[in-house]
Structure formats: structure tokens, C-alpha cells
Amino acid sequence: YSFCTLLKTMATSWNLQAKVTDAKFTVPAHVKPIRDKVLKFVENDVYPLEDRLHKVFKVHGEAEAIKVAMVEVSKLQAKAKAEGLWALGHPKSIGGQGMPFRDYIYVNEVQGRSELAQGALGTHSLQDSLMLHNHASNAIKEKYLKRLVSADIYPSFAMTEPDVVSSDPTGISTSAVLSEDRSEWIINGRKWWTTNAGFAEYTCVMARTEQKPSDPHLAFSIILVPTCTPGYNIQRSTHVLGTHGGNHSEVIYDNVRVPVTNLIGKRGLGFLIAQERLGPGRIFHCMRWLGQAQRAFDLMCSRLVTRKLRGRNLGTKQLMQEHVYESYCDISALRLLTMAAAEKMDSGTYARVELAAVKAWGARALCRVLDRAVQVHGAAGLTDDTPLGEMYRNARAARFYDGPDEVHITTVGRLVLRAYEDGKTWDFSSMGPRAKL
Q1: Are strands 157-158 and 202-208 parallel, antiparallel or unpaired?
Q2: Mean pLDDT for the chain overall
Q3: How far is CA 342 from CA 88, 180, 354, 360, in A?
Q4: Based on C-alpha coordinates, what's the Rg of the chain?
Q5: What's the CA gap between 395 and 436, in Å, rounded?
Q6: Which residues contact 331 (CB under 8 A, 6 or more apart)?
Q7: 89, 105, 108, 107: which is closest to 97 by C-alpha?
Q8: What secondary structure, in 3-state letters, does the chain show?
Q9: Cα(64)–Cα(69) distance, rounded to whole angstroms?
Q10: Is the pLDDT of residue 275 over 90?
Q11: Would you say 207 and 20 are in contact if contact means Cβ atoms under 8 Å apart?
Q12: In degrees, to the nearest 5, what angle opens at C-alpha 40 toward C-alphas 34 and 41?
């Protein structure tokens, strides 16, 4: 037998094992058709808009680019709705298509190849829609939820403050107190990194409402503030390492008054609600990062098989092959960590360790994959001739938003060691602590 024949025989025996598809590392058959449709939509409709907006920004500036983006993305949204691609991950009860977490990974990783695709496919509002659905009053739901899911309006969320260490949210100083007749909340403070505040219908603000709580995490509440409210003053839109993406605003709240009924959930439970919102958000980020990493990997490998050095492809060089190897491993590990977290969340368990692990690993892995892609492109990788420059800058921000790496890393270390302090072991096969046999 030849080596190739033996290799085919081995591949056949591996296929028998592949029928055990708990992890579903490959795309399940029932997900592939919708995933392919989303990928085609992103590549054929969203990518061209990226190039157009970049040109508008260079010639006319950020304000005009945002205006054009709003108009053009709305056209893509209409097309996505017509093609049955809209709000795939939103629960059916609020107007979405109810795709489970694990199935949603495979779709979100192709959608994530472009930052614009979230808005074009209606997935940008998932965290905020779930928060209103689970915790807002019926009046708030009636006013905002349907329009939110359909993208007639955009949400924003304000937690981070410029003068407070973001890794410890118990230091938040923005305050909300009741008026004398107890009919309104009066909010004062300063927030920044409020994404999309410039065109959002409202901002859900994390504010200190309790002065002497039994636990420091019970000092905060979430209050919905329409962005047209007097005293809601946007100071600036902060760029990300020089890039114009994201529309992240710094906002001053100067005696902002809203009805007491704008409280989201129960008073003092803002931190818990925020964590509930951020948990799925972290895994959604990781799903999208898979798409970003795949796009960077494709660009890198295409460069390696087309760029010539002394008559031979650049990919024939061993150090370049190492870049392929390292990125292959980073992406594969990120997919497995993401699927593990999604599986645990699908079971109804709050996957605290899994979410923390994949958030920190995913952000770092994405940065590494993009760094290699830039390196392979040489000087061209530093220009705007490829999407890598903006992708790289956005990826670096990923190591901060929804919690910096250090917080998630210490969370994993602390919770795993707690199992051993209790005389248990950490069982990777069951993804959790287990009593020693």
C-alpha cells in the first residue's frame, strides 16, 4: 500500500468517530444553508459598503460617513429581512428567529467578518433587547422593544466612567436620586464609551441609587434615559487608536430627569442585570472575533500563495508557514472554547468560568492572528489598502470592553482554585468541579 492509500484508510476510520458530534466542530447540516446565505450576504453586500464608507470618510470626514452609513445600512437591513436573515439569534417571543446559542455560533462567525454586518443583519440589539424583555416594565417594552428589534431605533448602554477604574464597577460615581415627590429620577455624572449614543434613541445608565447597601454590588440601578432628555449632553466621540469606527461617546448627565418608571428591573440590582446582559455579550463578541480571525487568516494565506520572493511564493518560507500554524491553532482553540461556553449556556447554566476564559483568550488570539496577517503583508499591512489596519485597531480594543483581560483571567484562576480548596478537582470533561473519586 502507498502512503496516500493508508492515509485515506485512516481518514475513513476517523469519520466513524466524527459521528459523535457533541462539540460540533464542523458546521451542522441543519445550520449550513442559513450560514451560507449569511456569508454570501456579508461578502457580496457588506464588504463593498466598507470600501465606500472608507472613501467617504477620507474625503468628507466622520460626520458624513456616519450619515451615509445609516442610509446604506438601512437598505441592507431591508434586504436581510426580505431574505429571512434578520435577527436570527433573537428569541421568537420578541420578533426574532430563535436560533440556539450553539447554532448561532456558526452564523455569527461569518457575520462577524465585518463590523457593519451586525447592524445590517439586526444582531446589534440582541443584548439590549433581552435586557428590556426580561426586566423592563410593560410600558417600556411597549414603547421601545418592537422598534428596537426591527432596528427602527438604536440602543446604547452607559457603565464606564473616565475617572473610575473600570475593572471595579463598584466605584461608579454617577448618581440617581428621587425627586421630592418621588416621581422622577435625577441623574448626575459623566460616562464615556457609550457606543452609538450619537444616534441612539435612549441610553440605559448604570447609576448609584443606594448609599448604604448591604453589599457594594447592590448600590446600583439601571435607568433608561431618552437621548433627547434635557441635560443629556454628548461631549465628544472618542476614536479607537485613531480609527473612526464605533461612535463611542462621552456624555455628561446634568440634572437629567426621567420618570421613576424608567427603572429597568428592581432598584439596587443594576449590577446583576448588567452581568446578565454582559454574559451573552461576551460570547457574541467571541463569535464575531472568529469571523474577524477567519477573514485575517484568509487574507494572510492568499498573500502567502501569491506574493513572490525570488521567483517562489512567500509561503514556501518556513517562518511564514509558522505564521499559518500559529494562527490555525489560535482560531481552532477559540472555536472550541466558544462552543464549550455556548453549550453550557444552552443548558441553562451561567457559564462564568467558560465565558471569562473565552473572552480573555479570544481577544488575545484575535490580536495575534491579525498581527501575523499584518506582518505577512509587509508595509502594505500598515496601509488602508487592506481592511487589516482597522481590524487590528478594533481588535486591540477587544481586550478592554466588557471587562479587561486581567479581570477575566483572575476570575478563572480564582474559581478553579476554589474547587481545589474545597477538596474537589476541576474536571474538563464535565466543565466544572467534581468530587475526587
Answers
A1: parallel
A2: 90
A3: 16, 46, 9, 16
A4: 23
A5: 40
A6: 290, 293, 294, 297, 365, 369
A7: 89
A8: CCHHHHHHHHHHHHHHHCCCCCCCCCCCCCCHHHHHHHHHHHHHHHHHHHHHHHHHHHHHCHHHHHHHHHHHHHHHHHHHHHCCCCCCCCCHHHCCCCCCHHHHHHHHHHHCCCCCHHHHHCCCCHHHHHHHHHHCCHHHHHHHHHHHHCCCCCCCEECCCCCCCCCCHHHCCCEEEECCCCCEEEEEEEEEEEECCCCCCEEEEEEECCCCCCCHHHCEEEEEEECCCCCEEEEEEEEECCEEEEEEEEEEEEEEEEEHHHEECCCCEHHHHHHHHHHHHHHHHHHHHHHHHHHHHHHHHHHHHHCEECCEEHHHCHHHHHHHHHHHHHHHHHHHHHHHHHHHHHCCCCCHHHHHHHHHHHHHHHHHHHHHHHHHCHHHHHCCCCCHHHHHHHHHHCCCCCCCHHHHHHHHHHHHHHHHHCCEEEECCCCEEEECC
A9: 8
A10: no
A11: no
A12: 90
Q: How far apart are CA 351 and CA 359, in angstroms?
A: 12
Grid cell digits, residue 348: 441553562
Give pTM, 2 decimals.
0.86
- Determine whether 290 is exposed, middle or buried from the number of CB atoms within 10 Å of its CB (0-12, 13-18, 19+): buried
- In this predicted structure, which of 4-13, 116-125, 349-358 has the lowest mean pLDDT? 4-13
Q: How much is the pLDDT for 95?
A: 92
pLDDT tens per residue, range 98-146:
998 778 888 999 999 999 999 999 999 999 999 999 999 999 999 999 9
For residues 27 and 34, what is the distance between their CA atoms, to the nearest angstrom?
11
Query: Pick from 207, 210, 203: which is nearest to 187 by CA?
Result: 207
Distance of CA 32 to the CA centre of its chain: 22
315, three cell numbers: 509561503
Amino acid identity, position 275:
Q
pLDDT in tens, 387-406: 999 899 989 989 998 889 99
CB neighbours (10 Å) of residue 36?
13
Angstrom distance (rounded) from CA 68 to CA 142 = 30
**pLDDT, mean of residues 164-169:** 82
How many Å apart are CA 240 and CA 257, to the nearest integer?
Answer: 31
Beta bridge partners of 237: 249
Strand pairing report for 184-195 and 220-226: unpaired
